[in-house]
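Aim 2, interim progress: modelling of the protoporphyrin IX containing FE-bound target.
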Amino acid sequence: MAADLTPMDRPAGHSIPLRNTPERYGIVAQALHWLIAALVAVQFVLGVKAHGLPLGLERLILLARHKSLGLTLFALVMLRLAWRMYSPPPPWSSQAPLRTAARLSHGLLYALLLAMPIAGWLLSSASNLTVSWFGLFSLPDLVAPDRRLAHWLLLTHQTMAWLLLAVVVIHTGAAFWHHRILKDNVLTRMLPFTRRARRSGRPP
Ligand code: HEM
Ligand code: HEM
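Predicted structure of the complex, ligand included:
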């Protein structure tokens, strides 16, 4: 539990603890958060670029990277959820409506981060495209080739992508709103380079 601190949570010097503490996210949760955020951005660039290209080698190469990175992302999100169970996030101390909004948006982010790769894998199978992980091994097809299903799955994958983008924009806006307007520690506790966390935003 995050509450019973061990030396692993409080290493010497000013370095960030491995596990989450009641005050801040630990280095593992932070690293996974920012790595996943960066990969999502790359996924958008690759997906949109591939979608705009005519059928051909360049499109296939971009799509192969998109699929491999998408599977990596799926594994990292699973790892992140497992780590979250082992080391629960720092508690929220803002008012109930903000807590509920944060819980809902984080839940939606996790749901989309897991659903998108599955929809992508289904889409590839229905489009008769092999899914391999950086050419090292191939994954089995989840469904038989089917043009109608592929069309429907592409729409699903696209809709989820734009929904994910919208939630990420709101999420980022909310982080800066906490930092600039509420002046609490919500953003700084997810940042590696802030030594001292701000006040916890506890309601008066
Ligand atoms: C979180 C992970 C992912 C994100 C954010 C993402 C995002 C996107 C985006 C933005 C597009 C372009 C849609 C458009 O331009 O309208 C796209 C297309 C696509 N994605 Fe993903 N994707 C992810 C994971 C995956 C995975 C794991 C696979 C397959 C295993 C996959 C397969 C595809 C395919 C086949 C296309 C269609 C490209 C085309 O032919 O037009 N995606 N994705
Ligand atoms: C694709 C981009 C992003 C995704 C998918 C994402 C996802 C998430 C998720 C799922 C959480 C919940 C962590 C947990 O408690 O388990 C979280 C927390 C957080 N994210 Fe992001 N995030 C993204 C980008 C950003 C950006 C750009 C910022 C700010 C500039 C940001 C700031 C934060 C902060 C401050 C928290 C901690 C909130 C708290 O303490 O309650 N995120 N993010």
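The longest helix spans residues 147-182. Residues 33, 36-37, 40, 84, 89, 92, 102, 106, 109-110, 113, 168, 171-172, 175, 186-187, 189-190 surround protoporphyrin IX containing FE (ligand 2) (CB under 6 Å).
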